[in-house]
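User: I'm curious whether this sequence folds into something compact or stays loose and floppy. Could you predict its structure so I can see for myself?
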Amino acid sequence: MTEQYSLRIAHLYPDVMNIYGDRGNGIALKHRCQARGIEAEVIGVGVGDPFDPAGFDLILIGGGQDREQRRIADDLVARGPALKAAAGDGLPGLAVCGGFQMFGHRYIDLDGSVIPGIGIFDIETRHPGAGADRCIGDIVIDTPFGRVVGFENHGGRTYLTPGQEPLGKVIRGYGNNAEDGNEGARYNNFIGTYLHGSLLPKNPRIADDLILKALQRKYGAGTTLPPLDDSTEEAAHSAAIAAAMRRSKAR
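Assistant: Here's the prediction. I'll summarize afterward.
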């Protein structure tokens, strides 16, 4: 990999949507780029900041509670058409938990109020009511990237419209709604998921796939990603899966 390659990564609302260490996703992407000689810049985009998805190669948004989602809702909806068009054109991205919910059509909260989304994923999220348990704990899923491990903590239940591809199938934990075995969603090169942890340091294959998709979109389909010595990362990944398999609810 030569120094001609560079990526600009937009982290949306990092001061608001950053629960359970989701900021670590940007840190992991930057580290894995720089280890290969790829210049990587992670740029925070707050409410009201100038932002054009066409100026970026990869998008991140983390999780937040209902009040944080309400804080950013108007700003995100205003950016929605541009983000949706960019995702349709292959822009890679990762949306976690509350960000995942808001990249769907809507979230209907505990009081029945609607927090609007931007419709990148064909999903709807609904809170099941005050008496319902939260979906919380370690989670392991089967995905096209292999087994993926993380931590989930959400009250809302997300439902995929027929035809919407999930990220994976639950082995341990709850997933989107604790009912149908689905976890997350995929659209083109965009990933939505409930997995914190943060996700990408625990699952370097997903990090590398996002980086590769971003490079190929920018520099051409023949662009490749040199391997790294991931012995430490793979050992940590395996240990996290083993711990989650012991502690979490079987599907």
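Summary: The first strand starts at residue 6 and ends at 12. Residues 6-247 form a domain with the Rossmann fold fold (CATH 3.40.50.880).
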